[in-house]
Amino acid sequence: MDTDTKDRLTRADWLAHGLRTLARHGANALKVGDLAAGLDVSRGSFYWHFKDATDFRTQLLQLWKERVTEQVFRDIDAAIVGPARLTHLMKLAFNEDRSLDRAIRELAATDPAAAEMVAAVDARRVEYLSKLMIESGVESRHARPRAEFLYWAYIGQTAVMNPALNAVTESDIDDLSALFTRAGG
C-alpha cells in the first residue's frame, strides 16, 4: 500500500478488512498487529479509529448485522412484492458463501458480546421469515414454527460436510418455498 493510501485509511477500511480476515481466517486472526500488517500500516492507525479491540469487534459485529440482515431485507422489500419475497430470500440464503457467518458464530461461542449479537440477528431473521410467510398466506399461528424450522435448516446446511448433501438447486428452493407457504396446518 502506498503512503497516500495509508494516510487515507478509514474506519470503514479497517472494518472491511476485519470482515474479510474473519471470513478467511477465523476469529483468532483478529489481532491488532496481524490486521495492521495485512493493511501494511502501523498499529497506531488501528487505535486512531478504534478505542480498543473490543470496540473494533463491536463495530465489526454491527457492520455484519447491517450487511447480511438489515440491508438484505431492505433490498428484498424494495425490489420484490408478494410471495416471491420468500423464494428470493431462500435462493439468496441457501446459495451464498457463509464463511463469514460461520466465523461470526465461532466467535460467538467464546465471546458473550458476539453471542448476544448473533442471538439478536437470529431472532430478527426468524421474525422476517415469519412476516414473509404471513404475507404469503400462512396463518400467523403456523408462520413462526415454519420460519424457525426453515432457519434451522439454513444454519445447519453449512455443517453438512458432504457437498452432495448440502447443495440446493433453484428448483428445490421453489418446491421448499411452496411447502413452507401453504396456508394449511
UniProtKB/TrEMBL annotation:
Keywords on record: DNA-binding
Gene Ontology molecular function, alphabetical: DNA binding
Record Gene3D superfamilies: Tetracycline Repressor, domain 2
Pfam families, per the entry: TetR_N
InterPro entries: Homeodomain-like_sf, HTH_TetR
Domain HTH tetR-type: 17-52
Record carries keyword NADP: no
Protein name from the UniProt record: TetR/AcrR family transcriptional regulator
Organism: Rhodopseudomonas palustris (strain ATCC BAA-98 / CGA009)
